[in-house]
Amino acid sequence: MRALSFAVVAVLASISGLGCGDDPPASYATYQECFDDRTMNGGELVPDAIVGCCLENPIGGLTKACGATTPDCINYLTTNLNQTSASTVEVMDSCAAYVDEKNNPPEE
Question: Across-strand partners of 59?
Fold first, then answer.
């Protein structure tokens, strides 16, 4: 009976994310490093990489380094993302998506 109880607890812990195997998101010294890793190594599309780096990855030790508003994000990316990495429209749309997801996180 103990073995069965242990097995049930182990399965429930792994399903609910309570296990010890969850790695923290990678942190990067610069935003460009995060973007390049997600697009070149992770195969993400530009908008997904922009939003992901802004929401999930610490950049230079800061979480949500892209700021609190869409203009903050656009200004941050203008300074920290190579001009050839994303179009102006991709930056604007991705920053709007970032702010929306930051303010309205998906329910789990």
Answer: 28, 62
Interatomic CA distance for residues 11 and 19, integer angstroms: 9
Mark out the alpha helices in the chain (DSSP H runs). 2-16, 31-36, 46-56, 70-80, 88-103
Residues belonging to the chain: 108
3-state secondary structure (DSSP) of residue 45: coil
pLDDT digits (tens, 9 = 90+) for 67-100: 999 999 999 999 999 999 999 999 999 999 999 9
Q: Where are the domains of the chain?
A: 31-103
pTM of the prediction? Answer: 0.77
Sign, CA dihedral 67-72-35-49, equals: positive
